[in-house]
Write the structure tokens for this entry.
Amino acid sequence: VEILRLAQSKRNINSLNMDLERDMQRIDEANQELLLKIHEKEDEIQRLESEIIQTRDLAEEEEWEKENFTTMERERALQELEEETARLERKNETLVHSIAELERKLTRKSQKATKCEQGNLKGTPEESKAKLQQLEASCVDQEKDLAKVIEDYAFVAQLCEDQALCIKKYQETLRKIEEELETRFLEREVSKVMSMNSASKECNSQNNQDNSLQKKKTGFFKRIFRYFFFTTLFFIRLLGYLFFHISFINPDLFVNILPKILSRNILWKLRCFLFPSLTLETEDVLPH
């Protein structure tokens, strides 16, 4: 009865081992599928990240080129305004010199006119009147020229003031544009750092998931190994008990139990199989 119970327990353990092996095989296949899916997802994530980085870099380069183009245009316009201002300043200086020259000429002519009047007082009154009329006409013409020069000077001065205001406005706009470019550059750098941090966090989370799966897998294999180890220890202990029982308590255990369990045909086959190994060959030793 004890042997029957042991055989039944052995069959149960063997069936359990087979079930465990099938479960382990299914779990290994599921783990392989999960690992393949994880690798595919990682490759897809890396591809998407590379595409996002490339598109972001292209967009940033295009935006940077546009901003550089606009800044270059504004700098060129500012340079043209500065050249125009310098030209107007040179014209203003020439007008100032021309006004001073006209004033000197007027003073010299007035001095000459007074000298001529003083010298011609001795002449006839008709000649003095004609000369006086000529001098008055020349004075009127010179006054007209002087008024025209003063108007030109005022116009040029107004243009210079307008150009100076435009230059100040352009300088302010350029300073604002430079500040905006610096802030955008800093924002892009910060966004790059944040994206790198998020990518590193995602990689760390993915690594943690892989490590957790690996830990679960190793824990499962450890449990199975412990199960097989203790099962083998149990069978070794049972075999030890059986060997001790056969050796010291009941040497004829199998002789008494096997005929009750097995049929005659099986017993005959077992006897034919085991008889040569259990029989001592003493023909050469015995005397003839």
Q: What stands out?
A: The radius of gyration is 59 Å. Residues 264 and 270 are 10 Å apart (CA to CA). Helices lie at 2-120, 125-249, 253-261, 264-278. Confidence is low (pLDDT under 50) at residues 280-288.
